[in-house]
Amino acid sequence: MWSQYDENIEENVFFKEVSANHGDIIEKSCEENWIITVPREGCFESNENISFEVILDHILIPTEENEYTTLSKKNVSVENKKIIIENCHSFDILFEETFYQQESLKYVVWCIDRPLFVEYTCKVYQKVYLENIHDCIDFLWVESLSHLILDQIRKLSVDFTNQYKDFEVEDLQTQKDLIGRLYSQCLQAAFKNTHLKEKSSKSDQFFENLKISVETYMHYCLGSKLVSAVNTFMCTHDGWFNHITRNAKFLLAKDLGISDDFDDILTLAKCELNKINSYLSILDKINCLQRTFKCFEDGKSKTCITSDEILKFLVFIMLKLNVNNWNSNLVFIKEYRFSSISYNNDFVITSFEAAVEFIKSNNFLDIKNNALMNDSKNDIFDYVRLGMLREVKELLKQEKTLPEQKLCHPLCSCNNCKDITNTKKTNIDVHMVNEKGQNLLTYAAIYNQCELLEYFLHTKCNVNSTDYLNRTALHYAASYGYQDILLLLINFGADINALDCDKNTPLHLACDFGHETCVKALVYSSINVKYDLANFFGDTPLHLATKWSYIDIVRFLVENGGYTNVKNRRNKTPVEVSSNYCTRMLLENAPEILCNNNYEIWENLEIMENNDVANIDSLDFGVKPRTIENFKKIDLLLKAIENNDSPLTRFYLGFNNDTIQETTKKQCHPLCACAVCITDSTTNPTSPKTPNILSVNTCNPFGYTPLHFAAKYGRLEIVRLLLDSSASINVKTYSTLYTPLHLACLNKRTSVVKELLQCGNCKVDEKDSKGNTPLFYASTNCCNKIVEMLLSNGADCNKKNNGGKTIVQDCEERMLYGILNMFHENLKEADEKSTWDIF
Amino acid sequence: MAMTGNNSGVRNFKIVLLGEGCVGKTSLVLRYVDDKFNNNHISTVQAAFLNKKLNIDGKRVNLAIWDTAGQEQFHALGPIYYRSSNGAILVYDITDQDSFQKVKSWVKELRKMLGADICLIIAGNKIDLEKDRNVTLEDAEEYACKVGAIHCQTSAKQNIGVEDMFMSLTTKMLDISDEKENQKSSPLSRQNSQRRNVIVVDDEITPPSKSCCGS
Ligand SMILES: Nc1nc2c(ncn2[C@@H]2O[C@H](COP(=O)(O)OP(=O)(O)O)[C@@H](O)[C@H]2O)c(=O)[nH]1
Ligand SMILES: [Mg+2]
């Protein structure tokens, strides 16, 4: 690619001299393909310095490939857009221009950066084209002969930042308009300088450079403010894009059809491109893209890279890099450019844009699937991967029936015994591991094979077995975003805080790969989960979610008590990792209590951790479903309760078949045994004997039992039904620790509260995760009736919550005088009672 | 790089090459810009994008020539590459009827996406292989005429018709651009510019107006 330098050759002093006085040379050039080299504008101030000898020095006659002699008989060679003369001096060829004349005659002109063979002291500005911020600062400083311009631009930019505090949340057009205005102001300031003004009017190239340097220095002064504004504007796009790239990490070069020969080039290109976010200005960023491209061009590798391959390369390195804002970068480069920073680079930028589009497209997912799905069936692991349950079962059965064969002696290595030991090694059992140390269960999780996983869970397969990366099945389920698998594993006691070799918990991985559903499942489905463990790099899950701009996950973690002030190994808190306004606001506005009470929560977690996982199944909590089918059923059941569909509720719980008979065909008479009636009752899948009935205390992944739901939605009839079938009344949800009574009070279900309290064993003063009792919610909800009932059932209005406040204090703060009156009366009564008791 | 409204009067034209793989797109560009030919299907990255400056009777023209990836896998990305081009060269291989059909589908797509603004060239390449010809000249010319394209016959290998092809495209683009220029009151507007940049004429500075951003 030619450099960006450009000038109108026809106005060049040297060229004018040649064409005015040496028409014969031009004629000859047309005929003989001579090349006229023209030192760029400014090298010669007037034609007085241009002697005939100098002109002869500048006309090149081609001899061999890349070899020329001048008309003055000197030899030169050309290499890499440079002219090299005998004493090894080299001269840049800035551009080539082909001049067409009438009758399709043409000749070629090369514009070069200084005269050949002439003792030459530089008269024009050093750099012909600006590459980065340093060039721009030099340019402004040197050309204006003072640092005044720089100061002014800086001041304008600082004022701008102060004036538009909300700049980041403006829409694209407003941002562009504001920046455009600032740019105009900066340019105007630059034009006040007489040197700059004068030179600009003389040379277009100079004027272009001035604009570029003003703009670039302005970007530099605005600093991260501008970048962050674009990031904010694009943050959902980037989050989505990151989700795709993160989940394609496992793609290999060959999956994209790139051969190994290019490994070195790709590594170089990656190093260049990885710097993109260390630059603040468009010029620098474009330069970074350009340099990345250059890596492909100057690749030392023997095989040439065809242009068709560039796109694949770009896609590949973009997938592998840790750049979290590609969309923003490209929008910034494309939309916020006011000066003409390089038209030449459009192709480079477009290629990156195309790569981004490609990554977003479905094509890309095809490649991903192809990589996952090879259908060779060599061993049991392949059967697992392909989800062939029957074959897997058969293989496992075979193992048991293999006859025991004895070796001649324990260390014997005769052919016979070798065979035996070999088959032993490949013997199949549930504990076998593959070359990565993954057992069958983990492998099933990796390939999202629910059925097989369930099967392995019911055999004696170790649910917490780790592979050579120290990852468990739960790690993989979390990182691939398989929520079903994840829940199933948790219910079978998978260690929810297991650490892999980088000290990542499953929650880290779910956050890193942006699987919101898994993050929620992990947080909700166990009281043991630790939100804030730091991995090897010191990153908490919140760091990772923030880094990749997964806004919803960040919001969720913050709401559920992720710490916002943990520092990672680079000494950065999540806020400092944040690249945009949206996540930053979420983090900065995180509930304060969580930041201040770290310690307490931490200790609680430690204590909880000491409990065995199995304890979750204790009386305090619901029973976890253990099959995928029941998983789905509990959801349906809860839905039915929400809809107040009591027949369906009974149906799922399997304790009433009257209702079933209503929905199915009526029997002729209750004991009829005619053909029709018999087939009906035998095919009836919901007969009470069906083994897969849900227990009345089954809970969903978040610990909600049917009773919770019935209480929450005020389904009195169902509440009665459940209580009658001995549903545990004091069960708690996992993370919030709500009892059904909490939920009834929260949702003002007076009749349900009454029903619950009528059961003798209902605990009225249970605390939820915030330390609040049901009475607290009843009071703050101003449900006098419920408050009254609770008080008369012995609820204590002096209980303190985690914030250290009693309910009475809280009501005083809220000025709920009606409720307070009730408290006072209740306390008085209690006092009287106790005085009575004394007597 | 005088994109902005200064007086150097350079016209920037973007040309894309489209067509099935292996018809010789890259070879044509390399022949035109570097006067080289390679018998193997190998091209350097530079060939993906090449600049050629021309001076035709005092008019300065800057051709940005974009070679595209021919792979079907990337077909959907076409619009990203050809948007805002002034000219397109649709190449087919005269020995390969399929490649000619592909040209037809490109013509449809370009006309649909870019309208009549784009100058089209349909180029039958590899005429050095005349003996194996599978697409008749009459068919191709008739079709080109029908869709308002210029038909050219080329051989990148023997350097036949390559320069002429680029010349006729450039001349046509110049005509269109002259026409546009005359229509517009302002001598500064560029038919192919994607955005209006901040225009500075000495001290007077006009900020970018709201409606300026094309893309
Ligand atoms: N005989 C002949 N072969 C050609 C010509 N142009 C290109 N080729 C060959 O066709 C093959 C494909 O050329 P290439 O330019 O890479 O095609 P692209 O895929 O369209 O870019 C190469 O082997 C070239 O050598 C031509 O004019 N005549
Ligand atoms: Mg090609």
Automatic annotation (TrEMBL), chain A:
UniProt KW Magnesium keyword: no
Keyword set, alphabetical order: ANK repeat
Domain VPS9: 235-368
MF-aspect GO terms: guanyl-nucleotide exchange factor activity; SNARE binding
UniProt record, GO biological process: early endosome to late endosome transport; neuron projection morphogenesis
Cellular component aspect of the GO annotation: early endosome; late endosome; neuron projection; plasma membrane; transport vesicle; tubular endosome
The keyword Magnesium is assigned to this record: no
ANK repeats: 469-501, 537-569, 702-734, 770-802
Coiled-coil zones: none
Name of the protein in question: VPS9 domain-containing protein
UniProtKB/TrEMBL annotation, chain B:
GO cellular component, as recorded: endomembrane system
Cited SUPFAM superfamilies: P-loop containing nucleoside triphosphate hydrolases
Pfam families: Ras
CDD domains named in the record: Rab21
Entries under PROSITE patterns matching the protein: RAB, RAS, RHO
InterPro entries to which the protein is assigned, alphabetical: P-loop_NTPase (IPR027417), Rab21 (IPR041833), Small_GTP-bd (IPR005225), Small_GTPase (IPR001806)
Coiled-coil boundaries: none
Biological process terms in GO annotation: protein transport; Rab protein signal transduction
Protein family (similarity comment): Belongs to the small GTPase superfamily. Rab family.
Entry protein name: Ras-related protein Rab-21
Membrane topology per record: Lipid-anchor
A GO molecular-function annotation: GTPase activity
Keyword match Lipoprotein: yes
Keywords, ordered alphabetically: GTP-binding, Lipoprotein, Membrane, Nucleotide-binding, Prenylation, Protein transport, Transport
Intracellular or extracellular location(s): Endomembrane system
Organism listed in the record: Brassicogethes aeneus (Rape pollen beetle)
Main location: membrane
